[in-house]
Amino acid sequence: MNAQIPIFHIEAQTLPEVWEKAVLKTWQEGHPIKTEYDRPDEKLSKDCTMIMVIKSPMSEPRIHRAFPGSLEDLEIYKQEVVDGVHDHWINPAEGKWTYTYHKRIFGYETEGEQIDQIDYCIRKLSETPYSRRAQAITWNPKLDPETYDPPCLQRLWFRITKADDDKLFLNCNTHWRSRDAFKASFMNMFALIALQAKIADQLSQNIGKEVSVGRYVDISDSFHIYGSYFKEFERFLETVKNRSFEQKTWTTKFARPFFEEAKEKLKKEKEENNG
Question: Over pLDDT 90: what percentage of the chain?
Fold first, then answer.
């Protein structure tokens, strides 16, 4: 057995296509290795370093039907990352969340201050679109190394490029320490592409010229499928094997009513908390 963790590069136009190909590649050729969460009777995980490139992140269809979760879950998770709807759940003293991605990138705490890193990225790119300095980090070396479940997302990086016809595009790279390929990565990418679109919209307003969503690149040091759910994963394999791409995906238009239901759920939750 080769001792090297393999490196894979998956590239396609849409999010569901890239995700499916990356998960299948990990299953077929990933390196077998233990994790810190294994029980004695569980199989080794399948692991790789994965680079995913989505050339047109906003192109339809945008949702893979086989991602583990509901469409309501997808909208709620997106709002957790982009809007911070569950930042108030952070309370490590009571055994609750130790962080959220939204809190780390919109309100990173250091030396008694909270830094809005996304605001910096928008201001920097509004002034200097080609800057290489528009980035946001999540890792806190004082808090994270000793926690049970430290942040997987480590860094986001943005840059504006200009096409031959002078159209502007916001490119985004995300860097991950560790990633559950099957159960987490689709929702992760869906949410961060939504953040990319939000930043592009704000940049358009700031500079008075449309900035479209450009390519999205997703880099994971450890992109893995856990041995604990191999049997569950076999159902995913059957789904992708026996259905066409159209039968395996949904458009945003189809998902919108479910997203609206999730928004209503979050609204009621907020009212109950405030009450």
Answer: 90
